[in-house]
Amino acid sequence: MKTMKFKFYEEEYNLFLTIDKYASNGNIAISVWDTEEGPFANLTVNICDLPKGLACIDTNNFKEGIDLIKKYDLGTFTNNFVTSGYCTYPVFALNMDNIKQYAKEV
């Protein structure tokens, strides 16, 4: 498993991903972990049922996740959004081949 170098608030982290599914509908759930500190952030958020390979990115709690996706080619913006409450989340088509390079088995 490779790690991703990521600068966040002037600190540099070595990050990896875990891949799971949301129990309610089977959407993909991706969490971000620091190799030394443990849980870092959730990359995805479960808003509604989505076709396989698509995910809402949790820009409400981890807006920097978009930078991580771009830097490591983890997905492509679909030009679609899903709204929940006061938040609007971008929908990405995930690049699972690249995601799996940085993922640890759960």
Task: Write a structural description.
The chain has helices spanning 65-71, 96-101; strands at residues 4-8, 11-21, 28-34, 38-42, 44-45, 54-57, 75-84, 87-94, 103-104. The strands form two sheets. Strands 1, 2, 3, 4 and 9 form a five-stranded mixed sheet that branches. A four-stranded antiparallel sheet has the order 5-6-8-7, with helices on one face. The radius of gyration is 13 Å and the shape is globular. The mean pLDDT is 95. The chain contains two helices and nine strands; from the N terminus they run E-E-E-E-E-E-H-E-E-H-E. With 106 residues, it is mainly beta. A hairpin with a 2-residue loop joins strand 7 and strand 8. It has one domain.
Overall mean confidence score, pLDDT = 95
Query: Low-confidence segments, ≥5 residues, pLDDT <50?
Result: none
Query: Helix-strand pattern, N to C?
Result: EEEEEEHEEHE
Q: Number of folding domains?
A: 1
Strand-residue proportion? over 45%
What separation lies between the terminal Cα atoms?
Answer: 13 Å
What assembly state would you assign to the polypeptide chains in this entry?
A: single chain
Structural class: mainly beta
Q: How does the major sheet shape up?
A: 5 strands, mixed
CA-based shape: globular
C-alpha-based Rg, rounded: 13 Å
* Count of β-strands: 9
The number of helices is: 2
| Helix fraction by DSSP (H/I, runs of at least 4) | 10-25%
